[in-house]
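User: Here's a protein and a ligand (flavin-adenine dinucleotide). What would the complex look like?
Assistant: Let me lay out the input and then the predicted complex.
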Amino acid sequence: MHKKLLIAGGGIGGLAAALACARAGWSMELLEQSPVFGEVGAGIQLGPNVVKVLREMGLEPGLQRVAAYPSQLEVRNAVSTERLAVFPLGKVTEQRYGAPYVSIARADMHTLLLDAVRQHDSVGLHLDSRLAGISTTDHSVRVETVQDQAFEAPLLVGADGLWSQVRKEVIDDGAPRVTGHLAFRAMLPQSTLPVPLRSQVVTAWMGPDFHAVHYPVRAGEWLNVVCIVHGKVVGDPQSWDHSANAHELRSRMSQARGALRDLIYAIDQWRLWPLCDREPMGSAAEHAKGRIALLGDAAHPMRPYLAQGAGMAIEDAAALARCISETPQEIPHALQRYAEMRWQRNARVQARAIQNGKIYHLKGLAQVGRDLSLKLLGARLIDVPWLYNGP
Ligand code: FAD
């Protein structure tokens, strides 16, 4: 039988799915609405659970070339600047979980995946191809694009992100919810920063109604900074990359002190993301229906406070390739197994991310209690064995 599929979306999730499926002997057409493949200038962290999957996809040598391998994660109070806890990464993570913890520019991750996908003649990459219509029969799914192309295959994977169109075919639950949190992001060469602000570790600063995280990317040569504040959406939430005003960020984080304050005053160029998510998944039915499966943000958009959105998309991709390859002649069953295999883990990560956001932004007595717990229990509170051990 001919093992063929369609993928909507060429972000990290769609490309990871293309790579995992191509390596398992599938041929496919991938439709991406943008005129060029690319990712914006920001970073992501990838836990050992994700690095293990990337290793299985043959991407570890590429990661070693372009990612950073921070030695530890530090948690600090953004107002007192006190160091509250240290969680060892580096060798400790490798020994405990069998893979390192890495931080990488999104564009570099995307390029690693795209280059690997391009090694497979079985993948047709179609840019400027925005999904317009989807119809299913007993044996296939047909998609049409705004540009009047048509494609047909026994299954369709919706990796079309937060505002997924494919999602409507699986579960019609309206638009994502606006969280009321805004992410200001910057990525810049460390050499442009004063020496005391350069860093090779992951640092999380917790303040009242805000937090900030920074970590090295590009083999440690660049620093990625993300600040999360409470605020209204400026402009259209679907346009997820607004130019941002440095003065606005500084006033929203006016209580920040020490190196964090110096950092936000040292950076003038920020980009702004209004953060949206959905309720944690409630059942496998939200992951797949018939011959259509959802993957990554299309299935389970989450707040970035566990740093695992792209990670879960990559885990989804590996699970999907495995399930459809086990029973390629029974696609609806294969997708059902995929959904059963993934939904609870994705729901748990979504829920934990929401909880983390609340903890990071605590005020008053609750904040005092949080800081005390972190000082007493430290790494034990930060570690997430069920997550880092992998699915
Ligand atoms: P997307 O990246 O949104 O890709 C979807 C693709 O589909 C896009 O290329 C889009 O153009 C295309 N598309 C959309 N509609 C159509 C259509 N109709 N037809 C054709 N193509 C279409 N994750 C981590 O793992 N670690 C982190 O540290 C981390 N930090 C983050 C920090 C912030 C501030 C934010 C906002 C997110 C962070 N994430 C992190 C989450 C991560 O970025 C996302 O979960 C991940 O990029 C989702 O990938 P995706 O491929 O599912 O979706």
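Summary: DSSP finds 13 helices and 19 strands in the chain.
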